[in-house]
Structures are given as C-alpha cells and as structure tokens.
Amino acid sequence: MDYFKSPNRWERGKWIATVAAIGTAVIWWTFGTLLGKPKSEFYAPGKLTSVHQTWENQCSACHAGLHAIRDDSLGSRWEGGTLDADDKCQTCHRGPPHFAKQSAAESPGCSSCHQDHRGVQASLLKMDDAACTRCHHPLHRPAERNAETTKPAITRFDATHHPEFQSTSQAPGRLKFSHSIHMLAGFMQNPGKEWEKKPWTYARIDDRGQRTRYMAAAGQKDENALVQLQCSSCHQLDGSDFGTSRMTGTPAAILPPQQSGSHMLPITFENQCQACHALDRPNLPAAIQHRQTPAEIRLALYRGAAHDYLHNSPDLLEQVMAPMPLPNHRPPISRTVSTALDERVAAAEISLSQDVCGKCHYFQPTQRPGLWPVVPPQLPQVWFQHAKFDHRAHRAVDCRQCHEGAYSDPSRAFDDRKSSYMPKMATCLQCHAPPSGKEDKPSGGARFDCAECHRYHNGENRMAGVGAQIESPAHKLNVGEFQRGGPQD
Amino acid sequence: MLIRRQELSSHLGWIVLLVAGTVTIAGVYCAYGMGRPRLPGGSSPPGMVFGILGSAIMLFEFFLWPRKKVRTWRIGSAKLWMRAHIWLGFLTVPLIVFHSGFSMGGQLSSVLMVLFGIVIASGLFGLFLQQILPRLMLEHVPAETIYSQIDHVSRQNYWDAEDLVAATSGMVIDASHTLQARPVAEARTSDYIVVGAQRTEGNVRGKVLQTQVPTSTSVPSEALNVLNDSFLGTVGHFLLHGRRCREGAELKSPLAAAAYFDNLRLMLPQSAHETVETLKSLCEQRRQFDLQCRMHGWLHGWLLVHVPLSAALIGLMFVHILVALKYW
Predict the structure, then answer these.
(1) Residue B45's closest chain A neighbor by CA?
(2) What is the ipTM of this complex?
(3) Is residue A163 part of a domain?
(4) Is residue A412 part of a domain?
(5) A153, A170, A277 from A416: Cα distances, Å
(6) Which of A38, A349, A434, A442 has the greatest CB tally within 10 Å of its CB?
(7) Residues of the domain holding A69
(8) How many inter-chain contacts (A to B, CB under 8 Å) are there?
(9) Quick one: which of A383, A453, A428 has its CA closest to A167?
(10) Cα A272 vs. chain centroid, distance in angstroms?
(11) Does residue B52 belong to the interface with chain A, where contact is any CB pair within 8 Å?
C-alpha cells in the first residue's frame, strides 16, 4: 500500500522536463552572455544605432552601472535625474542647452529624447512630438502672438495646431530689388521708361569672365542675345556651381570650397550683381568699391578728381604756393582748385546716389549734403530662424512651387520689400502631413514631426554662442579611450 | 479545479480582484503615459511596480508545487491555494504586459515573454481540461482505479481470469500455460474464485466482486481447448496489456469484443458461458483502464509544459531583474 510513495511516469516526466527546462535556460544564458554573443543583442531591446556601433558590446560606455539612464525610470526619480548616464553621453557629446538661461531642473536627461537600442538604422534625432509638446503646449502665450498666428496650442504640425511661419512673413530687408524684373529677358519690364530703353544683352556685360559665365549658364552663344537669368544664376548650394572658375578675381573668400548644401549661398554684390551693376562708371573721377563708407568714397573721389586736375592742368604744379593760411582764410589759388574739386566730387556723389548706390540701397539722411550712409540691407541669409530647411532634400521640386512670387509677373510690384517670396505653411503641408489622397493625386506622406524642422540644442545654431562654449568635450580622448567609451578609471 | 456554478460564490471575490486589478493597472498606466513621448516601460515608476507585483505573484504561483508536495503544511487549504493560483495567475497577464510597455525587448525579455505566454496558455488549457475530463471520467470510466495501480490491478484481473478459465477447462496453470507468472503471495489458497467485475443496476454502475464456485470439467475437451487458446492467445494478452498489445487487438473496440465473445460463446457449451461473460466483463474493465490512462494523460500532460517552463521562467526572471537593475 505504499504505491503512492513512488512517483508515476507523469510525475517522473514532470521532474525530468523541469530539470531539462532549467538546464536549457542556464545553457542558453551561459552561451548567450559568456561565449561571445553580443550582450546588447541578448539584453537590450535592439541594436545600437549605426553611429554607436563601436560600443555595441561596451555596455559601460553609456550605462553607469546601477544608475538610471532613462529619465522616465523609477531610478531617475530616486537619484534626481540621470546625471551619471548623461555624463557618459557628454564624454563625447556636450550638447548645449535649449536656451541660454535654461536651468538644470528644466533640462531633461539625454535619453528622454535620444533613445538608442532601436536598431542600426534608427535615428537618434527622430523622436516623438510629445518630447517637445510636453513643454511647448503650456508655453503658448497668445498675448505674445499676433492675431494671425495665434493658435490654441502647439501640439503638431498642421493648420490648426501650429502657428504660421513668422520668420518668413516679415519684411524682406531694406533693399530695392525686384525679382520680377530680373527674371525678364533683357530686364525689360516697361520699355517706355528711359532707363530701360536699352535692353540688356550679354554684350553689355563688360567683364569678359562674367559675360562667359552668364552665357554658359544660359546655354547661350550669341553675345547679342538678351540676358535671361535663371534661379540658379544667383542661387546655388555650392560655390563651384556658379561657373566662376574662369573669371578673373573670383571672390573665393565669399564662396567657400565646400558647403553642406542645405542653404543657398549668400548673395554678394561681387558674385551676383557686379556683372551688370559695375561701380567703375566713366563719369566718376575714381572707381569705388562696394561696402565703402561715404567718407571713404568721398576721399576716393577727391583723390581721383585731384589726380584728374593735376593730370589735365599740369601748370597748376608750377604756381607759387601761398603762405600758410591764417585760420579761417584760404589762399586764393587753393580756393579755386578746391571749389572745382568740390563741384566735381559733389556731382559724382549725386550720380552715385541716384544711379549707382541709390539704385539698390536706401540712405540714412544726415545734415551734411552729398552721399549719405546706406541703410544696411538686413537681408536674412537664413530665413527660417527657428527651424531648418534643407534645399538639397528638396532639389527635385521646381523653385516656382515654393517661390511663385519671385517669378516674372507684370501685375506684381517691382519692389520686393512689399512682400516676401518665402513660402507659407500651407506650401509645406502639401507634403509634410499624414498621407492622404488617391493614387492619381497623392497628398502628404513626408515627415511632419517637430524634429523634422526644429532642433533642441541651441536651436539651429548649435555651434554658436552658448553652443560654441559647451559643444566640445571638456576632455579630448585618444582613439583607445574613444573606443572604450571614455578615459580609463 | 472544477469551477461550477454552485461554487461561483467562492470565486467571486477573486474575480472582482482580477477585474478591479486589471482596470486599476490599465488606468494607472494610461494616466502616467498620457502625453509622454513613448510608452512607459518596465523601468518607469508604474512599470517597475507592475514588474515587482508580477514577479512576486509568479513566485507565489510557483510555490504551489512544493505546497502540493508537502500537504501537511498548515498554510491555507489546498482549495484556497488553487483559487489563488488561478486568479492571481490571470492577474499577472495585465501586470506583465503593462510592465513590458507592449514591447518584447531584447532576446532575454523576449524569451521571458514567450515562456510567460506559454505558461499562461498551458495553465488555461489545464483549467479547461479540469472542467471537462473529471466529468467524462465519471461517466465513461466507472471502473476507475488509482492511476498508478492500473498495471497492478490489470495483473490481478488476469490472474483471476486465469483461475476462472483453469477452473472451467481444467487447465493446469504452469509456466507454459500462463502469460504472467504470479508471485507466491498471489497464489490461490481457497476453493473459491473471486473476480472483480463491473455491474450495472439501473443508474448505478460500478465494480463489484463476484464470488464464483469453480465449475466441474464436464465440458468436452475440444471445446475446452478453444477456451484455453482464446484466453492464452487473445484475452489474456488484452487483460495484461490492454490496447498496447497486438494479440488482443480485436478486443479494443466494445463492438468487436462483443462479437468476439458471442462467437466464443457459440463454440462453448452452456456451462462455460458464465465464464465467457466474466472474461467479457474483465475486458471491458481493461478498456476502461485504457480510457482512464488516456484521460489521465490529458489531465496531467499539460503539466509537463506548465511546470518546467514555469521553473525556467522563474530562473530567467531573476536574471532579468539583475540585468534590468544594472542597466535601467
């Protein structure tokens, strides 16, 4: 009657299977962790992103043992943050704060936005909008916004939850410039006007190098053909695309040899304007340089005029010099030459004001007659001050799709100051929105999350200001230390 | 554990606990995760609490095994333990799912999650079987005996049948005339043969002991040889080995067995018919033992998955805890 003391085959099987299961688990774990299998693959939810692949098996490069790395973890609550793990991140990346006066309490941990272990192809810069809107949602202050841009909250990129672009809606600087005229063949908008009687042909471009450049850009071989500018004639992503290599005096300093390609190169007088708007006019006593002050110009004009006088009237050099003039008294001979020089310089200044400088620039009136100081154009080189835009990523799209206003339109005002040719939010929303539409008319589909356009660390100028002070690591590593994830303890 | 309508009140508290717990867990998780850039994971405050609760419950669940082994421990009745095992086991599902943040994680946590899923599924399967099989066994196996004693009882039946056939036919039981030598303790000592047979009286069915006086050997010798051959060639093998034997294959089905014994009865004189009936009854018992074995297999087979994987789950769970605390 002691049959119950000996296990039946099911009971035996249960024991055997239990031992086998535990043994299998132990062997799997042992082989998985000790015998060469990457630890991250075994423990972590995914592989590190490609830029961190060097530390795929160096957990301690980023993880401070027993200290929290996720700022939403219970451990970070206990420790008051993820300071130890953030220190590890900042061994290589000393990201500047969001804004200069940001306190430590306001600064989230690195991992609150940059989450790794999501696969080799994952981007550390792509994060959920909630990382931004958890602060920006309540930060919205309608009183600080104008009526047009006031939105109930910034929670996502669409017409109702994001304000209109403010950077691009402002007046485009202080410069007399008409895209409409410059996009016309020969720049002839109103042929009846005196200054437009003679259309611009390539032959009118005096500088041979500049003439060759613009003819090549337009694919034109006839010098008597009307000049026809394209967007790319003035706006290029890389300096080498201007075709200025054969020009004499190529302004290399203003065309850096390598560009990121995200922004158009800045417009400079020497590169984009000088070909047609040359400053060495024959009626001026001297050639002047762009960016010279009125005083410098005046001095140059005096020198030129004096040189002309002496050159044309060498007998002046033979006249006896008067004694040193008394205060408030000039010798007669000097007064005569001076008056002549003054008249010549004054005429030149008027010519400059009306036909040269004043053609594009506004002046700041002063008490002194003559050439007044120029109002700084203040054209933004980067229009989006709080967001990024990559022209290179949009190079397949015709410029007209976003900058329609820049194209020739007879009904449009000549002066660009009256309107910005920058696109509005609706232009972006055509693609940067959730996918919708039908097969024959697709709509949306491109990314529209906050991080697609906005950067956190010191905005778009991470290497400037506070970014420049903090970006570089405090301690530079050698290659061995770098591969280990930091200096040896 | 059988969960019947009559006993629902004893489960009601557990069911309320399960529902309230699940709603609370989901509510806390959603409230915490609202507006966050990503779903809270295991290291978040609610995730960590869920993980601790879940692992504590899993440890408790696993403790049922030693609790069953040592029934003398005075730490709650077996029924209470079983109810807690079932309903708290269900509660671990929302706890662990929300602890995981709806992500499988790395290989270790994926394996843990798969093990957890299999353990839960096998437990559900076992619970389902426990609602059906005992009732079926009650209906279809009235001759049920202790599972581990089936072979012993089968041998006992064989020896009873062997005595009966020997008494009927005058066969001498020796080494050449038996399929299973009997130990000395089992040697027949009285002039009476006692056979455990199955009887049905109205709605009552069960195993009864039949006491039978050995019959005289007034049967023709040719007929007796038929009885001996049938017993040693077919019936004896079936009584000993049941459906596993090839020799008694025609007795595996009740219909085929009835036909077999009807045919045998035709070949034997009237005086041997009662012996044939007894053999038929013993074969029916053997079929029920086979059915009981199959049902027992279903009823306990799931434990071969549930228990070992639970042990592996508990072991790897501790690894997971250590790793998670180091790299959380």
Answers:
(1) A74
(2) 0.81
(3) no
(4) yes
(5) 33, 12, 18
(6) A349
(7) 44-127+464-484
(8) 118
(9) A383
(10) 19
(11) no
